Amino acid sequence: xxxxxxxxxxxxxxxxxxxxxxxxxxxxxxxxxxxxxxxxxxxxxxxxxxxxxxxxxxxxxxxxxxxxxxxxxxxxxxxxxxxxxxxxxxxxxxxxxxxxxxxxxxxxxxxxxxxxxxxxxxxxxxxxxxxxxxxxxxxxxxxxxxxxxxxxxxxxxxxxxxxxxxxxxxxxxxxxxxxxxxxxxxxxxxxxxxxxxxxxxxxxxxxxxxxxxxxxxxxxxxxxxxxxxxxxxxxxxxxxxxxxxxxxxxxxxxxxxxxxxxxxxxxxxxxxxxxxxxxxxxxxxxxxxxxxxxxxxxxxxxxxxxxxxxxxxxxxxxxxxxxxxxxxxxxxxxxxxxxxxxxxxxxxxxxxxxxxxxxxxxxxxxxxxxxxxxxxxxxxxxxxxxxxxxxxxxxxxxxxxxxxxxxxxxxxxxxxxxxxxxxxxxxxxxxxxxxxxxxxxxxxxxxxxxxxxxxxxxxxxxxxxxxxxxxxxxxxxxxxxxxxxxxxxxxxxxxxxxxxxxxxxxxxxxxxxxxxxxxxxxxxxxxxxxxxxxxxxxxxxxxxxxxxxxxxxxxxxxxxxxxxxxxxxxxxxxxxxxxxxxxxxxxxxxxxxxxxxxxxxxxxxxxxxxxxxxxxxxxxxxxxxxxxxxxxxxxxxxxxxxxxxxxxxxxxxxxxxxxxxxxxxxxxxxxxxxxxxxxxxxxxxxxxxxxxxxxxxxxxxxxxxxxxxxxxxxxxxxxxxxxxxxxxxxxxxxxxxxxxxxxxxxxxx
Length: 749
Description:
Layout: H1 2-19, H2 24-45, H3 50-65, H4 72-96, H5 100-116, H6 121-141, H7 148-169, H8 174-201, H9 207-235, H10 239-267, H11 294-312, H12 324-331, H13 344-366, H14 378-392, H15 412-434, H16 440-449, H17 456-484, H18 488-505, H19 510-527, H20 533-556, H21 562-588, H22 596-613, H23 615-618, H24 625-653, H25 672-686, E1 694-696, H26 700-703, H27 718-735, E2 744-746
Parallel strand pairs: 1-2
Helix pairs in contact: 1-8, 2-3, 2-7, 2-18, 3-6, 3-7, 4-6, 4-7, 5-6, 5-15, 8-9, 8-10, 8-11, 9-10, 10-13, 10-24, 11-13, 15-16, 15-20, 16-20, 17-19, 17-20, 18-19, 21-22, 21-24, 21-25, 22-24, 24-27, 25-27
């Protein structure tokens, strides 16, 4: 019974870790709710009024979520600086609240400074946010100069309680957070293997759903790998340890993605080059039309189950002897003589299982799991030696790329500050025409739609989502206000629940977050005895006005149009793609070793930025269906390119430590055509007048005088794998020509 209970707890823990990597959302929700509850308890014991309770609760929320720095010392400094900023803001709000013209001018100036402060990093962003939000709190509660001593005490209590929750009750150390992110990666890797197993077993009419699950699992695994990347420096004792974890995570991610591709190819009548579905609404690859033979299915199913077990037992607390037999059997597939007698495509799947088992063993070593070498087979011992050699070869040196910083009005923070100021001025005027008492809701919406947005299209989509969440939240607020009536502490209890839901869903859905915020506001109005149907309707009107003012300002004042933004980011992606591909192939052909994993991660980050920037173009409500499909198609092709570039980088990383793999000088210069094509596309994106053409021609294998697999024995299968990735990369780059309107030029050799 005890073992069964432990197993259930382990599964639940893994499921939570996979759904919330690093428990970041859970931690944020607990911190925020805890800070509010503690603030309310402290203020209640001192006999504070309801107005002070509301001010303290709202300030505790701001003091908790505004801090975004990773180091605890930096968080403490920002929190300490935030208190005087908050005290000044609430004081000025109380003093200027009745002076309409002077108050409006100051509020506009405050908004400009708060946004401009983002150029100073996380601390500037946090202090600007605290100043703006606390000033808004003073307007919301209608603070007066005579109430300031009580307000100062409430704010001081809120900041103190926020500090207690952050540093004592729900502490998050960089090392602890990184450990939880690694657990999340392991859990998501296990989920991906489960999805791959379901793809193997899927009936023909179930393949589309199974393939979609594999795609989603691969994307979630990649997301977690990027999150780990951002925490490595703070969460590891030294740079060498950080690079070790980075390499092991990258190995496991690429091995898992390759396994999914080869499994899909084994089930397909045609070759599968990517898990990405290129065209929206296009049919899935012909998976399931040629099912895996029954005699091979049993072996694959058994080995995929074994691989999932290895992943689940990869953590530090797992027994070392429990995985030895499974590990040895799967690692044996790395030797040609141990492969089962089946078709070449199925043998590729078994090889991929062996490579995945090796990556899991490396992950286990990196995570500090117990190692039992007594049962090592020769294949396992060789894999362990390879991993040890890789660990010893890690170079702590890093290259840092410094981007050229724009100045003046072209600087993003300056431009955003000017846009928000203009939009807020419009919102103040329009909001006061709607209501002389609640005009600040329009300003708040205008402010919020500019946070974490870079183009007019992004602001439009965010404004739409906020308005939708507000409308739905008003309905919920009416229902909740009716239920709680005038019960103060019941209302505060529901507010805590809504705030937790707001914090937990914020990274997932801006619409949901807006819904919970608006429902909470309805309850706050009941506490302040200002609740009415008219007030909530006015909330919707002010929100719509604020969103409209934000869009108008973004469109007319120093506009950054979505096309321009996406073109800039597309150019960055193409530049990073060229760097990774050239460096990897140069190293594979015998060139000097360079830092490939960092370059691959920079490519992933650039692609993530592009994916976010195209959301206005791919949003379901966009009326431009053609542009939506084109944007999705281009991003999908770039994801295919990134996969093959990552695979080339991972293969090149093996050269220094694997004596069975040798550089192939025939590969030198193999990327010339692809790199030229990427340059033509980048030039076309930057300048529509460019007349360059995309080149096509003979296959890479023919250019090298053979497939690579038939060459000298010392090149082995590695050249064949590299050529396949180069072929698929070149095909994807050529595929970009049509949607980006770049002409093709056939060149025979």
